[in-house]
Protein 1
Amino acid sequence: MSTSQRSSVEKAVLREHDLDDSHFDNTTGINSALTKFCGTLGSGGATKNHDVAIDKGVNWNSRYW
């Protein structure tokens, strides 16, 4: 997935959870959470959790965004 595609997906997921997709803390928070969840390695794609919905890769109850 290209960087622009990933960014689009991250912003869409934020909007689905009624979070501002232009807020720095939200965009860096979801990027970090999904990088850990997917195990991405550069542009090579996900290395883990292939069969799990991307929405499950974020703790939506987190107090910190």
Protein 2
Amino acid sequence: MAENCISLADIDHQLSCEGGNMAGIVPEIIFGYHEDVAVWPTEPVPTIDGTTQVVTPVELEAAGALVGNLTMKPGTRAFKFKFTEDAGNFSIVPVGEVDGTHFEYNLNIVKARISQTILGFMNAASQRKMFFIVPDENGEYYLMGNKRRGATFVTGGDGAVTGTTASDRNQASMQFRFRTGKALVYTGLVEELLVLVP
């Protein structure tokens, strides 16, 4: 009989006691270079008794969250990116063939007004592995990046466009993608990452 890695449980329909279900992402993400991360949170795994080799499955709720904190290397910190409200989205999409399924995290953001700083950010991100922490409107956080892979800048889309008429928005659109084996929320440190590590 195959071992179960995750224990199943009843799932009720209560959305939450904190205010239901709000769509969208908060227009403020945290980002940094993949190489500046000292420690990555780990994926949940079942425990195996060293003597009896009995497998204790991960509880269903714990199976949906990373374990631990992301921490930065000395002399580095993460950064905050504020963008246009209601002009960004995040998705976790299952992809792959049978017995080859994994998850693709997609982040799309729009920053109003093309500027030197935004073009500089696009240049910095275009050839480097990055990480992003994305908050949704329901208070969950999602980490794009792990010790093996970073989030990458995706080509295509609108890019930086000036608009045509006075009612159009001058803006830069950016897309980032991260592939991983599990769909997980991040429950570790967030704001603390913005402080320079001595």
Protein 3
Amino acid sequence: MIEASSQPAGGIRIEINGQTEELPADKASAFISVMLHKMQQKAAELGDNTPTGGAILYPDAVSVETDKQSGEQRLRLGFGKALFVISMPPGMLKNVDKAIEEI
């Protein structure tokens, strides 16, 4: 059996068959991001990647940054203690960057 609960500082506690692991907020966010990416890859591999539902999430923080190593622009979205970073091909974030500056 799998149980999960949130921790006061934004982390998560996962219990699987009696074994427990606690992840702080930064590691929990990275873990969730990796799992979502792997699930998306598997769905695409199986040809089952057409969304049938979902949820609307509103970020409480947003910014556009430039990766120091690659020079590519990334969109950073903050959802409480969770942070999601979206990479796009060069030039694709120019309009997003301008929209954020206007806010």
